[in-house]
Design goal:
The protein has five helices and no strands. It is mainly α and 148 residues long.
């Protein structure tokens, strides 16, 4: 299996886990509240990643280089809270498939802009007419899925 194919498989698997996570988080939020569930989800995640890093010694061992990271990279933690909160807000209202479709469409549009402009030290990848066409087809598919 090529490296690119493996990377795409891993990305696809992350999509599977995102749909499951959103569903489980929404179920938890119905019991304890959305902000409370957001807190619990991140606390459980912190415990899990702490075990991976410190108990099982996984990772690259470069945590001491944290101070070298640009300040904007720390916003990922805040965005993670916003993402979890918004997913829990949307799934119970519209359902898992429509919410996930809207999420993916937002991701693709934003990713296309990040690639096109090479934002946040990413390699520039022009948003070609093929990519625009693919995104429009995806938006059309999202519209079909979101129709009642």
């Amino acid at each position: 299996m090529s490296v690119r194919l493996l990377a795409l498989f891993i990305a696809g698997f992350s999509g599977v886990t995102m749909a499951l996570q959103g569903t489980l988080n929404a179920a938890l939020s119905k019991v304890i509240g959305i902000l409370e569930a957001t807190f619990v989800v991140h606390a459980v995640g912190l415990v899990f990643v702490s075990l991976l890093l410190f108990a099982f010694k996984l990772g690259d061992g470069k945590l001491e280089l944290l101070s070298r990271a640009p300040l904007y990279t720390y916003l990922g933690g805040i965005l993670g809270v916003i993402i979890v909160y918004c997913v829990m807000r949307s799934i119970p209202k519209v359902g898992v498939a429509p919410a996930t479709t809207a999420i993916i469409l937002g991701q693709v549009l934003t990713a296309g802009l990040i690639d096109h402009f090479g934002l946040f030290s990413m390699e520039k990848l022009s948003f070609s007419w093929c990519r625009v066409g693919g995104t429009l087809l995806m938006a059309g598919g999202a519209w079909l899925i979101l129709r009642k």
